[in-house]
Amino acid sequence: MFNPNHRKFSRSQVAVAALLSFEGKEPVEVMVMDVSMNGALLQTDLRFDPGTHCNVSILLGHFQHELPIEAAGIVVRSFEDGLALRFESVKIDSTPRLQNLIIDHAEDPGQVEVEFSKNGGWIFNPNN
């Protein structure tokens, strides 16, 4: 069984809307339940096999007036009420908003800032 204490990066609990899109399919609204430097947990009834590539636009702000956080990801797990994604890349102009989202909702913001610092800022490495 997976032990969350072995994670290299902290997860922040959130409840924000996002649009999830897969090649050849219309974007679908989902909820981001948690987010980390490497990925996100999405609440949805969609099921996709691990390894499936997707794009996610995390919608911030009232009435979604702020620019979304745009990321490309890959499904790593699919379960009864959601999907776990690993980020493969985040658009450069989305990076500061994603970092702020994680820090603003972190149980220990100082620890998250240490993680950013120890890893040279924002990185996307499937081995982390």
> Regarding CATH, which class?
Mainly Beta
Helix content: 10-25%
* Ends distance: 18 Å
Q: Could you give the order of the helices and strands?
A: EEEEEEHH
The general outline is globular
How many domains? 1
CATH architecture: Beta Barrel
Biggest sheet, in brief? 6 strands, antiparallel, barrel
Molecular structure report:
With 128 residues, the chain is of the alpha+beta class. It has one domain: predicted glycosyltransferase like domains (Thrombin, subunit H). The protein is built from two helices and six strands; from the N terminus they run ββββββαα. It has helices at residues 95-104, 109-118, and strands at residues 12-21, 28-35, 39-43, 53-58, 69-79, 82-90. A six-stranded antiparallel barrel has the order 1-2-3-6-5-4. A hairpin with a 6-residue loop joins β1 (12-21) and β2 (28-35). The chain starts with 11 loop residues before the first strand and ends in a 10-residue tail after the last helix.
Write a compact overview of the structure shown.
With 128 residues, the chain is of the alpha+beta class. It has one domain (10-118): Beta Barrel (Thrombin, subunit H), CATH 2.40.10. Helix content is 16%, strand content 38%.
List the helices and strands and how they pair.
Layout: E1 12-21, E2 28-35, E3 39-43, E4 53-58, E5 69-79, E6 82-90, H1 95-104, H2 109-118
Antiparallel strand pairs: 1-2, 1-4, 2-3, 3-6, 4-5, 5-6
